[in-house]
Structures are given as structure tokens and as C-alpha cells.
Predict the 3D structure of the following.
Amino acid sequence: MYAIYDTWDNNIHWYLWQEISSDYSWGVYGFNILEISFSNTGYDILARVNPVNGGTINGTGSYNYGETANLTAVPNDNFVFIDWTENDLQVSTDPNYSFAVTSDRKLCANFNRSVSIDAKEKNITFNIYPNPTKELINIEIGNAYNYCDEVDFVLYDYSGKGNKIENYTLNQNTITLSISDKISGIYYLRISINGKECGIKKVVIIKNN
């Protein structure tokens, strides 16, 4: 890459040439030819874990342009891998995420705590809808309704901050949560019945501008 300094208009003009001759005749006006070399220091591929105790990540670091980055998300005990996100957008659901490096990237490996043994023994299942949602979340708790004395919901945002949801209604085996005060983003809803955690569900909230 070359920079041509034009002494007529006192500006630098950038040009890309395969070849350039130092004795080229530029006419009556003066030009200075500056050859600029750029060094590629690489691109940083960074990743964090959500929640912080959910697992580990391999493959982060500095890569040259065009190289393939191979990231691996490994869950800790009692956790399962969910997905990779970037700027709150899902980019892969495969724990082994490979891509060609063209720029700096900051990714997040999301994990969920695995369903408790107590929940498995009782065959507790949950169905959440609509998802994505704007104002309300409906949760079908299936056969858990038969012995549900106490149910708690905690909604975790992208940073891992949790907020207990107190505003909900129960209609037979369906619970409706109000999330009208939440902004757009990816959340994780932890569901506990009778003081025992029974599952974590991913919830996407999209608000109209």
C-alpha cells in the first residue's frame, strides 16, 4: 500500500499497486511517495462462561486472519451446555464451535444446571410458551401440579444476575409469569418446586421498539 502526498492540495491519497516505479513522471506538480507497511498482530477470540461455575472453555486466544478457531465448551459436574452467543444472539448450539477468523470476537458459552435427581424420579416436565415472548410466560408444569405446595421462579439475565418473579398466576397446571418489566435479551428461568430445583429453561424476550 502506498500513500501519495500531493504538494498541490496538501492531502494524502491512498493507492494500491502491484508495482510502482520511483522515477515515474507525475507531471508539473510535486508528489512524495510513501510506502506504508502494516503488521498483522492477530485477532483476539475471547469467550466467557455463563454462569461462571458452569464449565470451562478451550481454544480462545490470538489468531491470524483466515485461520480457523476451534472453541470447545466443557460443562462442569451437574451442568449441561446450552449454546454459544455473541451480543445476546445465538451463533451455535454445538459445544465444538469452529469458524474462520476475520475480526475480534467476544463469545459466551452458556450452561444450565442439570435437572435434579428428585425431578427425574418424579418425571417432572415443563413446557414454556410463547418463546420468544414480550410480556408473559406460560409454564405447563405437567404432573408436578399434583404435589406442588410451593413453586419459585428466578429469572437470570445475560450477566448472571437473578431476580425472583413474584408476579404470577396459577390456573390448574399452567402458571403465567409477568415479565413486562424486562428488557429484550436472553434469560434463563430456574424453576423450583417445594424448595428443590427442578429445571432451567432458556427464555428469549423481544420488545418492540
Notes: The mean pLDDT is 76.
